Amino acid sequence: MDEQPRLMHSHTGVGMAGHPGLPQHMQEGTGGTDGDGRKQDIGDILQQIMTITDQSLDEAQARKHALNCHRMKPALFNVLCEIKEKTVLSIRGAQEEEPPDPQLMRLDNMLLAEGVSGPEKGGGSAAAAAAAAASGGAGADNSAEHSDYRAKLSQIRQIYHTELEKYEQACNEFTTHVMNLLREQSRTRPISPKEIERMVSIIHRKFSSIQMQLKQSTCEAVMILRSRFLDARRKRRNFNKQATEILNEYFYSHLSNPYPSEEAKEELAKKCAITVAQVHRRSVSNWFGNKRIRYKKNIGKFQEEANMYAARTAVNAANASSHGSQANSPSTPNSAGETGSLWLCSAIKLVPPLFSIFLLSFYLRLN
DNA sequence: TGGAATGATTTCAC
DNA sequence: GTGAAATCATTCCA
């Protein structure tokens, strides 16, 4: 074959009659004797190519050599290049314009929102803000947790960018390698710049699918990190013993109506020093909600506890009255009211009869 | 380490 | 909006 690379170049020539792919330069002088000669030559060459597969290996080899040395070979090569360009590439070209992958767009948006991709802004400030909001204000230990969160997010970001760089580098290297290979191959077969371009885009698509996996994994890592640090349930801390005592004291001293008012909840929250993850009144509400339902479900189990707190309350009350002052427990708007009685009655329905009798007598003593 | 205890959330009814 | 009930998820403890 010819030693010169035969990279195809785009032609705008009109195809030869009967051979739509044949370029203009192949048709020059078709009216003269020289033109007739060329036509004859090309006809011969085409005939030889068509029959080459029917020949033996040696014959075909000899024929190939003869064709390579033929004076019309470069012209024929160009014709083949044009035919290829006009048929194969034009068909495939229509498929190349693909819309952006929605999945990839989602991943990109998420990584951007989380501060993993895009400009660094303190490592997921939006997420950190969300964390602060979720915890009901930033306490000292919250900020410590947030800095831990930011540090881990920063690690993810660093790994992501390192891997991304690696992929891009590998992609560039591979693209260059393939381009060189194609240039090399263009010496022996028709390859157009368009074809190389298409090959490059295929490589890029392959690498972008790998990148998508990287983005997917990064998103998953961020999600896990978020749930680990930002899920409020994970922030649950048991109340300390003192707080539990205060709440229990209130609960059992208002057993007839264990529904503290908003003010009482606030006061209880203050007394229990409920801050941080346990958000003030809400935590108190949760505590009372849980306590009521669990007490109601299993009064027997809580009986001993109830007796103990009732005794303690009685002692406190006696002390208070002897000192001429009121009991130091948060007020309740309608304690021992109708609602309270109803609540206790409904609770009594759930316990065995003997317990009911005991509770009733206990209730009557309290009132 | 498994089960109990417990704080928080969700769903539903009022 | 509040409370009941169910459920989840974490913490505690034998």
UniProtKB/TrEMBL annotation:
The lineage of its organism: Eukaryota, Metazoa, Chordata, Craniata, Vertebrata. The keyword tRNA processing does not apply. It comes from Mastacembelus armatus (zig-zag eel). Residues 1-40 are annotated as: Disordered. Residues 37-231 form the PBC domain. It holds the Pfam family PBC. InterPro entries: HD (IPR001356), Homeodomain-like_sf (IPR009057), KN_HD (IPR008422), PBX_PBC_dom (IPR005542), TALE_homeobox (IPR050224). It is found in: Nucleus. One of its GO terms (cellular component) is transcription regulator complex. Residues 230-298 form the Homeobox domain. GO terms for biological process: cell differentiation. GO terms for molecular function: DNA-binding transcription factor activity; sequence-specific DNA binding. Residues 232-299 bind DNA. Keywords: Activator, Developmental protein, Differentiation, DNA-binding, Homeobox, Nucleus, Transcription, Transcription regulation. Belongs to the TALE/PBX homeobox family. CDD domains: homeodomain. This is Pre-B-cell leukemia transcription factor 1.
